[in-house]
Design goal:
There is one protein chain. The protein is built from 8 helices and 12 strands. By secondary structure, the chain is an alpha/beta fold. Helix 1 packs across helix 6 and helix 2 packs across helix 3. The chain is globular and about 55 Å long. The termini are far apart.
C-alpha cells in the first residue's frame, strides 16, 4: 500500500487532500489535534491524533508512511494569536525537516503560500520564486519563516521535499471558514456590493488537491506556484452577486478608507 500522512487534515485543504489521495488508492492517515473539530472523514481514512509542533508526536504519526503532505497551519491574520500562528508553522517545519532526515519517507510536499512572494502590481508571469524579506501580517510572516526553514534544510541535507505555493483557495467543505472563503461569505452577507481597487488570484480547492497529488509522484524535487484565476475585486463582487441573485448595486471605496 502507498501510505500517506496528511497534516492539517481538519483544515479546508487538508480535508480535500485526504479525499483526493483516498480516491487515488492511497492508504490515508489524517493527523488531527484532539482539541480540533474533526470533520466527517470517509470510513477508510484513518485518524491519528497528534500535533506537528511536538516532535515525538509527529514522528510517531509518520512511522510506516511512504509519503507526507504537510498542510498544517493556523490560517488567520489575527494579531491576537500571532504567536500561535508562528509556532505552528515554524515548529512544524523544523520537525518535518528532522523527520525527512531519517530517510524513511520517500517524498514530502510542504504547502507554502504565494503570500511569501508579496503583492504584485503587474500581470507579468512569475519566472522565479523570490521571497519577500519580511511582513507585518502574522500569517505571511509565519509562512515566510517556515518556507525558509524547509528550503535551507532541504539544500543542506538533500531532503526529498517539494514545496507548493497556492494562491487564494476557495471552495466547499470549509469547516472553520478560512479568510479566503470569508471573502465570498462577506460579499453574500453585505446588502450591497462593496469593493475596492485591485484584484485577487483565486483557485478551486479541488484543483489544488489534484495538483498536489500529481506532483507527489514526480521524482524531481522542485517548488511550484499553483496559480488560479486573476480577477478584480469589482468583478468578483459582480459574479458572487449574480450567482446569489442579489441586486447588482455596487459601491466603490478607495483602499485607504478600508484600511
Amino acid at each position: 500500500m502507498k501510505r500517506i500522512l496528511i497534516t492539517g487534515a481538519t483544515g479546508h485543504l487538508g480535508f480535500h487532500l485526504c479525499n483526493e489521495f483516498l480516491n487515488r488508492g492511497y492508504d490515508v492517515y489524517a493527523l488531527c489535534r484532539k482539541q480540533s473539530k474533526i470533520p466527517k472523514f470517509k470510513k477508510k481514512i484513518k485518524i491519528i491524533y497528534g500535533d506537528v509542533t511536538d516532535f515525538n508526536s509527529f514522528l510517531d504519526a509518520s512511522r510506516g508512511k511512504n509519503y507526507i503532505v504537510h498542510a498544517a497551519a493556523v490560517y488567520s491574520h489575527d494579531e491576537k494569536i500571532r504567536q500561535k500562528i508562528k509556532i505552528t508553522s515554524v515548529k512544524g517545519s523544523i520537525n518535518l525537516s528532522k523527520i525527512a532526515k531519517l530517510k524513511s519517507i520517500k517524498k514530502i510536499i510542504y504547502v507554502s503560500s504565494v503570500s511569501v512572494l508579496g503583492l504584485r502590481l503587474n500581470k507579468k508571469p512569475i519566472s522565479k520564486i523570490r521571497l519577500i524579506s519580511k511582513s507585518n501580517d502574522p500569517y505571511v510572516q509565519a509562512k515566510l519563516l517556515s518556507h525558509k526553514i524547509i528550503k535551507k534544510n532541504r539544500e543542506k541535507f538533500k531532503l526529498p521535499i517539494s514545496m507548493v505555493l497556492p494562491s487564494t483557495i476557495i471552495g466547499e467543505n470549509d469547516l472553520k471558514i478560512t479568510p479566503s472563503n470569508k471573502i465570498i461569505k462577506n460579499i453574500l452577507n453585505y446588502p450591497l456590493g462593496i469593493y475596492v481597487e485591485g484584484g485577487i488570484n483565486i483557485v478551486y480547492v479541488k484543483d489544488i488537491s489534484n495538483a498536489i497529488a500529481n506532483l507527489l509522484i514526480k521524482k524531481t524535487i522542485k517548488d511550484f506556484i499553483l496559480s488560479g484565476y486573476n480577477i478584480s475585486i469589482k468583478n468578483l463582487v459582480e459574479k458572487v452577486l449574480k450567482i446569489s441573485n442579489k441586486k447588482k448595486i455596487k459601491i466603490f471605496f478607495p483602499k485607504f478608507f478600508i484600511k
